[in-house]
Amino acid sequence: MAAFAPSELAIYTPAGKRAARDDAAAQCSLARSTQREHKEQLGALDAQFAGGYPSIVELLIVLPDHGIDAARFVAAATAAARAFPGSAARRDGASLSGDAGVAVSVVEGDHATPAPHRLFGAPGGGMSLRVANGAAGATVGASFDHALCDVSGAALFLEAASAAYCGAPAPAAPSLDRGAQAAVAVAPPPAGAGPARVERRKGGCGCVEWALDAAAVDDLRRAASAQTRHDAVFASIVVLLRRAGVVLRTASIARDARRPGGGLPARHFGNGGVLVEAAFGAADDAAACAARVRAAVDGGDAFLADSRRPSDVHLTSWYVRRDVRFGASDCAFAVGPGTVATAARFSALRGGQPVATVLPGLRGGLRVSVVAPTTVATKLRGLLAATPRAPRAALVWLHGLGDVSDRWRTHFERALPGVELRFPAAPPRPVAARGGETMPSWFDLETWPVSADEPAPDLDGAIAAVREAVDALGVPPGRVVVGGFSQGGAAAIAAALAAAAPYAGVVAVSGWCAQRPPPPAALPRLFFSAGTSDPAVTFKLAKRSGQLLAALAREPTVSHVQRAKHDPTPAELAAVDGFIRDVLR
Questions:
Q1: pLDDT band, very low/low/confident/very high, at 56 (cuts 50, 70, 90)
Q2: If you compute the radius of gyration of the chain from its CA atoms, what whole number of angstroms results?
Q3: I need a surface site. Which of 101, 356, 409, 416 has the fewest CB within 10 A?
Q4: Residues 330-351 pLDDT 10s
Q5: Which residues contact 378 (CB under 8 A, 6 or more apart)?
């Protein structure tokens, strides 16, 4: 099995039933749908959660270094409630009716888990929202009646609220026809009166949570030859639980009927989840387990919860669109404390069945939550803690002259999952070559386009900026690539030539060697690309720079690209990405 390389590893005991907390410090509102006479019947899949007291699901959205404006959030929730009138309705038996409102509360202070149904005392409809603003960022909590919708349905509501909060165009309208659930094929229960009895397990449960960065998830997928990232993570959970002493032959897996051919529209607001079962062999490794998971998801007979004897483990994925971030640059999702407590109760009722949930994490990673008997959770945590972690790797990228956009951040966050990224900003200064105009610039320029006649500039500030960025990372220089575009590429070359300890690699796209002659220093692996008709840097300067640097580099890659623009071509940029990934492998 590939190493999990987990981070943020934690184990805790799920909370039991608690009274609602004092909500005096919170700002409380009710977002109305404006459809007072709203009435709709629950669908066939909704009905399995409609018996007795509402089964509440809690989803948390963690927004690092980002605060939420209370008034804008309430207005956004109101806009979403209008598009999803059932969210503001109150459940009455097998139907939703009226406009009780979406309960919204905002509290200032460091509340890591703003579980809305515990922190919001006022009545409302099927959905309630909570925002906790703290020094480290904000957390949005969504609490909803499972008979109203599942997590994928709630994600549609949150997507609409996030778009309204950011002033973005509203997403496509949801499908509100709950009658469509009748088209989902579900196998009848086995012969007999319901599921076989399972002896309730005595003793407590623990919850083990950890994060996997995108690179670790991709490693798992490659090692298991898995079709999807979730298949690989599910398979690795199966292998880990077996190592923790769980006798594991079968797994129930949640399958969303919104998938193509599943029977429901892709934007169905309601419940769309059914279960399928995978059976594992005693000697199955992660690759075999991943294949069995995929076979069950693609072709297994669907059934409903509690219609048969519980499987040995339950695997579920909470799919949430990554644009549900309310203006933050990134976000992660987590299972709310009330849902963890519910999972612990179900685990005990099902004889100690572990319950594993996989959710989106930061920067393309995934988060995993496993609720299991305390003895199993403790062993699982020990196995994860003993897993060797992959060495950290980083890219420090310097922008071009006057460039204040986020285009490089956006590109590398997508192209280099698992690599830590830093984007230092050049200070504003007058630039002689641009008529003395003040703009972000790593050093002054006197010729435009930059030519072989350009005098050697003062590079001390640029070199210091790179050194400070690398020192702040705490990553060994040998695991850092320094690179840049245009003037930033020239600054990156200067920083690599001046480094006390060699960096893993240096990249310059449409750049040049500003030091002539360059100091007699050895360069690490080098990627240098230049346009043959670049309007901003003469090809004579770029070609000479590439020759000088290739003579100093351990493994040079110098590319002359047929382009008449300053920006790199898509193929050139893909080559940059591949070079960085290879260097930091």
A1: confident
A2: 28
A3: 409
A4: 899 999 988 999 999 999 989 9
A5: 11, 206
Within a domain: 499:
yes
Contact 128, 115 (CB under 8 A): no
Is residue 355 within 8 A of residue 339, CB to CB? The reply is no
**In this prediction, what percent of the chain has a pLDDT beyond 70?**
91
For 150-206, write each residue's pLDDT tens digit: 999 999 999 999 999 999 999 999 999 999 999 998 987 655 444 555 677 888 999
Residue 342 lies in a domain: no
What rounded mean pLDDT belongs to the chain? 89
d(CA 558, CA 526): 8
The confidence score (pLDDT) of residue 24 equals: 47
- DSSP class per residue in 504-528: SEEEEES----SSSPPS--B-EEEE
The phi, psi pair for 414, rounded to 5°, reads: -80, -40
Per-residue b/e over 223-260, b at no fewer than 16 CB within 10 Å?
bbebbebbbbbbbbbbbbbbebebebebbbbbbbbbee
The per-residue DSSP string of 110-161 comes to --S---HHHH--S--SSEEEEEEEETTEEEEEEEEETTT--HHHHHHHHHHH
Amino acid identity at 121: G
State the residue for tokens 């949930």: 357
**Domains of the chain: total:** 1
**CATH code for the domain in which residue 569 is found:** 3.40.50.1820
- Structure tokens of 394? 């980083």
Structural domain includes residue 253: no
> What number of residues does the chain have?
585
Strand order through the sheet with 56-64: 27-31, 102-108, 127-134, 137-145, 56-64, 332-335
In a domain, 190, yes or no: no
Helix H or strand E encompassing 559:
strand 556-561
Percent of the chain with pLDDT over 90: 68
**Residue 114 — very low, low, confident or very high, per pLDDT cuts 50/70/90?**
low
Phi/psi at 344 (nearest 5 deg)?
-65, -40
Would you say residue 321 has pLDDT above 80?
A: no
Instruction: List Cβ neighbours of 516 (8 Å cut-off, separation of 6 or more).
Output: 456, 548
Among the listed residues 406, 365, 358, 328, the one whose alpha carbon sits nearest the alpha carbon of residue 162: 328
